[in-house]
Amino acid sequence: MVVHNETSTGVASRIPLIRQAIDRARHGAMLMVDTISSLASMEYRHAEWGVDVTVCCSQKGLMLPPGLGFNAVSDKALAAAKQGACALLLGREDMLKNNASGFFPYTPATNLLYGLREALAMLREEGLHNVLARHARHAEATRRAVLAWDLEILCVDPAEHSNVLTAVMMPKGHDADAFRATVLERFDMSLGTGLAKLAAGCFASATSAT
User: Fold this and answer.
1) DSSP letters along the chain, please?
2) Structural domains in the chain, sorted by start
């Protein structure tokens, strides 16, 4: 189980390399990827990268409130579920059966589905390639600004920099929460907070809001 874009650290996992490592080890494990904060904001290829289960939700790159969940499931994972070897996929027969005709087995979130239709239309109008390029451009501009300010980016490996957000370390002696409060008050811009041991020493700048 891997998070594609880890929002508390600004790290983007290199999913194809993980798949290659599993295959080199000739291990039978399935690969499940959380794309909740990356789908439609960073490049992601479920089938091409050999992912077995992809999990996503309607917030973040799909520009909707929380409430809709999406899954892409490989044939291997579906077969494992039928054999009882993948508990996360059990009980999905009703959903799969009804999806084939465009329906839900239970009460759907109709308003969110209308919103999803509009969000997808917006993504198609701009072109997904252009959307991803815009996010990458904004992210790179943010990282360059952070370095020009002589601040430290939490993710130390450039190959794993997220194009969704940049986590920035505060200099010693300065409080991230106080900084965030000042930015909100003076510039009407909300920055994310660090988590756990980074709560007062790190802030996150979202660089790719659609």
Assistant:
1) -EESEETTTTEE--HHHHHHHHHHTT-----EEE-TTTBTTB---TTTTT-SEEEEESSGGG-S-S--EEEEE-HHHHHHHHTT--GGGTT-HHHHHHHTTT--SS---HHHHHHHHHHHHHHHHH-HHHHHHHHHHHHHHHHHHHHHTT-EES---GGGB-SSEEEEEPPTT--HHHHHHHHHHHH----EEP-GGGTTTEEEEE----
2) 2-126 (3.40.640.10), 128-206 (3.90.1150.10)
